[in-house]
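Hi R.,

As promised on Friday, here is the backbone we talked about, encoded as structure tokens. Could you run it through your design pipeline when you get a chance and send me back a sequence?
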């Protein structure tokens, strides 16, 4: 399953296995994931919608994606992770350089 452009869930799992807070060499790859996800899931679709120019409500769809983008960035900033298998949100805290998962009300 692709999560960011051509990048897959397995690509992300492999990267997170070697991604360490104290080592810089893999953080460029992590940023690439983030950038691809934002570009392919939000920025390019918003641009494609705006280029339709039929003025039949496509602006609403573009605004909806922009709101979703804001929520996505907020989730990244706050470390919120959604687990779709049990429909729960988790706070991802960094302790001793490693992510710890805790419940979010």
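Update: got your reply. Pasting your designed sequence below so it's all in one thread:
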């Amino acid at each position: 399953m692709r999560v960011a452009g051509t990048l897959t869930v397995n690509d992300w799992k492999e990267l997170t296995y070697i991604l360490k807070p104290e080592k810089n060499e893999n953080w460029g790859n992590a940023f690439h994931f983030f950038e691809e996800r934002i570009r392919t899931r939000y920025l390019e679709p918003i641009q494609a919608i705006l280029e339709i120019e039929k003025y039949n409500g496509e602006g609403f769809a573009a605004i909806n994606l922009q709101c979703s983008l804001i929520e996505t960035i907020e989730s990244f900033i706050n470390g919120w992770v959604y687990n779709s298998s049990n429909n729960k949100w988790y706070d991802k805290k960094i302790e001793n350089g490693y992510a710890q998962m805790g419940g979010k009300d």
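One thing I noticed while checking it: The first strand starts at residue 2 and ends at 4.

Thanks again,
M.
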